[in-house]
């Protein structure tokens, strides 16, 4: 079946380094993607999104890259800070009228001071 | 704060109890969702409501009963739950007809004893 998955379940980086979190998706009909951040004890927090007609979108310290050819999505965090430590999920929307998002399992990012 | 609130934040109930989870969104959205988040699993969509009408029931057991009295409020009524139903229950909302940018509440941590 169609699924969204993450290449790495855990990622540990040093404070100040750049982080890259990857996501593979298999539904070629997906036209909208979101990255969420979930801190311990909290609900997922919207970080950044991208539509399928784009291949790059930048936010504040975050960049999302979309490669439709290989069905790959990545989240880049610049100058990673301890407050960035969390689980990061990608989600895809394959369209339709049911408003469903399909979520990956998540990558745990740990930032070492 | 995401504009989506959930109560209670923590709930412990026995298998014979009846309880309800409440969600309220202050974002003016018209679509609301219930998700189940278990350890080491992706977010599982349970129910979708669009303009107060249920548009998705993702094969959820009947011991979970949703109610959406208006576009701002969503309830999940629980009865005769099983220990495996212990999880974090997340509510989300979005603006139907627009990009499926879903905003989540903090969740209710449910423990079934």
Walk me through the topology.
The complex is a heterodimer of chains A (113) and B (113).
Chain A (H helix, E strand, L loop, with lengths): L3 E2 L4 E5 L4 E7 L6 E7 L6 E7 L4 E3 L3 E6 L4 E6 L8 E8 L8 E2 L3 E6 L1
Parallel strand pairs in A: 2-11
Antiparallel strand pairs in A: 1-3, 3-8, 4-5, 4-9, 6-7, 7-8, 9-10, 9-11
Chain B lengths: L3 E4 L2 E4 L4 E8 L5 E7 L6 E7 L2 E5 L6 E7 L2 E7 L7 E8 L8 E2 L3 E5 L1
Parallel strand pairs in B: 2-11
Antiparallel strand pairs in B: 1-3, 3-8, 4-5, 4-9, 5-6, 7-8, 9-10, 9-11
Describe it for me?
The complex is a heterodimer of chains A (113) and B (113). Chain A has 113 residues and is mainly β. Chain A has no helices and 11 strands. Chain A has strands at residues 4-5, 10-14, 19-25, 32-38, 45-51, 56-58, 62-67, 72-77, 86-93, 102-103, 107-112. In chain A, strands 2, 4, 5, 9, 10 and 11 form a 6-stranded mixed beta sheet that branches. The termini of chain A are far apart. The mean pLDDT of chain A is 89. By secondary structure, chain B is an all-beta fold. Chain B is 0% helix and 57% strand. Chain B has strands at residues 4-7, 10-13, 18-25, 31-37, 44-50, 53-57, 64-70, 73-79, 87-94, 103-104, 108-112. In chain B, strands 2, 4, 5, 6, 9, 10 and 11 form a 7-stranded mixed beta sheet that branches. In chain B, a hairpin with a 6-residue loop joins strand 4 (31-37) and strand 5 (44-50). Chain B starts with a strand and ends with a strand. The chains are: A mainly beta (113), B mainly beta (113).
Task: Write a brief caption for the model.
Chain A has no helices and eleven strands. Chain A is mainly beta.
What ranges of chain B have pLDDT less than 50 throughout 5 or more consecutive residues?
Answer: none
User: How widely separated are the two ends of chain B?
Assistant: 31 Å
**Spatial shape of chain A:** globular
Coarse shape of chain B: globular
Assembly status: heterodimer
> Helical percent range of chain A?
under 10%
- SS content category of chain A: mainly beta
- Major beta sheet of chain B, specifics? 7 strands, mixed
Which structural class fits the helix and strand makeup of chain B? mainly beta
**For the report, how would you describe the main beta sheet of chain A?**
6 strands, mixed
Residue ranges of chain A: pLDDT <50 for 5 or more in a row?
none
Give me the number of helical elements of chain B.
0
E-strand count of chain A: 11
Number of E-state strands of chain B:
11
Please give the count of helices of chain A. Answer: 0
N-to-C SSE string of chain A, H for helix and E for strand: EEEEEEEEEEE
Distance between the termini of chain A: 40 Å
What radius of gyration of chain B results from the CA coordinates? Answer: 13 Å
**How confident overall, as mean pLDDT of chain B?**
91
What is the average of the pLDDT values of chain A? 89
């Amino acid at each position: 079946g169609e699924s969204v998955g993450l290449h790495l379940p855990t990622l540990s980086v040093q404070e100040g380094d750049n982080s890259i979190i990857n996501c593979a998706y298999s539904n070629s009909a997906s036209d909208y993607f979101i990255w969420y951040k979930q801190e311990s004890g909290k609900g997922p927090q919207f970080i950044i999104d991208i539509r399928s007609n784009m291949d790059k979108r930048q936010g504040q310290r975050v960049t999302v890259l979309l490669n439709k050819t290989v069905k790959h999505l990545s989240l880049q965090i610049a100058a990673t800070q301890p407050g960035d430590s969390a689980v990061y999920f990608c989600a895809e929307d394959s369209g339709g009228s049911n408003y469903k998002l399909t979520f990956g399992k998540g990558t745990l990012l740990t930032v070492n001071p | 704060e995401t504009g989506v609130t959930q109560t209670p934040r923590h709930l412990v109930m026995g298998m014979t109890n009846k309880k309800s989870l409440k969600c309220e969104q202050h974002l003016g959205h018209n679509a609301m969702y219930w998700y189940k988040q278990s350890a080491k699993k992706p977010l599982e969509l349970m129910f979708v409501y669009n303009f107060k009408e249920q548009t998705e029931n993702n094969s959820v057991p009947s011991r979970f009963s949703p109610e959406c009295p208006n576009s701002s409020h969503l309830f999940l009524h629980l009865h005769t739950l099983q220990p495996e139903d212990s999880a974090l229950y997340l509510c989300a909302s979005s603006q139907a007809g627009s990009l499926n940018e879903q905003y989540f509440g903090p969740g209710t941590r449910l423990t079934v004893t």
